[in-house]
Write a structure and sequence with these properties.
About 50% of the residues lie in helices and about 15% in strands. The chain is built from 13 helices and 11 strands. Strands 7-6-8-5-9-11 form a 6-stranded mixed sheet, covered by helices on one side. Strand 6, helix 6 and strand 7 (about 205) form a beta-alpha-beta unit. Helix 2 (about 55-70) runs antiparallel to helix 10 (about 270-305), helix 4 crosses helix 5 (about 140-150) and helix 6 crosses helix 11.
């Protein structure tokens, strides 16, 4: 082969290589990579009635997971009672009857009183943002896992999300003017709040959301709380009670709990597990905005239904804090559950003592915010 022939053939070979590589690259751009993995469908039941805004939020979390996994996982959304009653959801996920569920930790307080510390903790002087901060950055998640997997041997993996606005004292047939108005009334609540109102002299009944209004209507209850104006108006509270008392220390910081059957969860790819966890963080921000929008609109709608929307008297709020002392003292002395209960309480108090000092120093307090609101809006 001559020198001329050799030198002319190399550029030709390089051009063919570049063209071939370019064609391959173009094909890759033209044909995007689509996951060929088979879709994993998980049966996911909420503890909320179909029309409740909380069920809407449960469906929103599912949509975030479904969308972000690109169809690799599909949470099949079911309302309370579709497979099991609301208060049996955790057992169904544990056993594998359900693959996943959406609810609140307070619903499981009958299994261990400390469960409610992850759902209706004492009103330490924090809000639900601070509560979730403690859960993910102050040691709360490790304590939750210790309770679920080590102490109770529940076969689930869970995540908390959505910092709920402070919950109302509830719906009453007569306005609450002082602590004595709570004595000897038949009242619905859940979790440690049941202990709190019992300590204040109420006769407490624990019911799922869809059962409350019928019980009020039949006189089985004198008063009740659920959670928020949007849930309450859809459940029908304005039809059976005409006094809606806002502000309370009974459930001042709460969040949703999403749980998965541990066996099913452990088999998922790591990137899907990451999506399931981070979808909770995305939903916290998104659903808080939804709550502010809808709760405020529905509170105005409640007023138009002939309901008196009243602020809970300060002496009731003070009595609630005093009752919390009695509840905590009793729970920490329980010979079976007191040690772990105290462990969680100490962790929460250490978090609030430190973070609360910073927030009270740096943030405008509620009185200052109220003054600013009145300045601009009257």
């Amino acid at each position: 082969m001559s020198i001329h022939q050799s030198s002319s053939s190399k550029p030709t070979t390089r051009r063919k290589f570049i063209l071939a590589a370019g064609a391959t690259g173009a094909a890759a751009v033209a044909m995007p990579q689509v996951s060929r993995a088979q879709t994993t469908t998980l049966r996911y039941q909420s503890t909320w009635p179909t029309k409740d805004i909380f069920h809407e939020m449960a469906a929103d979390y599912a949509k975030k997971v479904n969308d972000m996994t690109g169809g690799r996982v599909r949470l099949e959304v079911l309302a309370a009672g579709s497979v099991v009653p609301a208060f049996q959801m955790q057992d169904a996920v544990h056993s594998g009857v359900l693959d996943a569920g959406h609810g609140v930790c307070a619903y499981w307080y009958g299994k261990h009183k400390a469960f409610s510390l992850f759902g209706t903790p004492p009103s330490w002087g924090w809000d639900a943002h601070g509560f979730l901060g403690w859960f993910y950055h102050g040691g709360g998640e490790a304590l939750y896992n210790e309770l679920v997997n080590n102490i109770l041997k529940v076969n689930t993996v869970g995540f908390l999300y959505f910092p709920m606005p402070t919950q109302p004292l509830g719906w009453f047939k007569k306005p609450v003017t002082g602590p004595n108005d709570l004595k000897n009334i038949k009242y619905r609540t859940v979790g440690l709040s049941a202990d709190l109102f019992t300590a204040m002299g109420s006769a407490v009944t624990i019911l799922a959301g869809g059962e409350i209004v019928p019980a009020l209507d039949r006189g089985l209850l004198d008063a009740a709380e659920f959670n928020n104006p949007s849930s309450d108006i859809l459940l029908g509270f304005p039809d059976v009670a005409k006094n809606f008392m806002l502000q309370s220390h009974h459930q001042q910081a709460e969040a949703f709990e999403v749980i998965f059957n541990k066996g099913r969860y452990d088999k998922l790819p790591d990137e899907v597990k990451a999506i399931i966890r981070n979808a909770a963080f995305a939903a916290s921000s998104d659903q808080l905005g939804l709550a502010y929008n809808r709760y405020s609109q529905d509170l105005e709608a409640i007023k138009k239904r002939g309901v008196a929307v009243l602020k809970t008297p300060d002496n009731v709020l003070t009595a609630q804090l005093e009752a919390w002392n009695r509840v905590l003292d009793a729970q920490q002395k329980d010979p079976k559950t007191g040690a772990f209960f105290t462990k969680v309480v100490d962790s929460q108090k250490a978090w609030v003592r430190r973070t609360g000092a910073y927030l009270q120093t740096n943030n405008l307090n509620s009185n200052a915010l109220e003054a600013a609101y009145k300045h601009f809006f009257g």
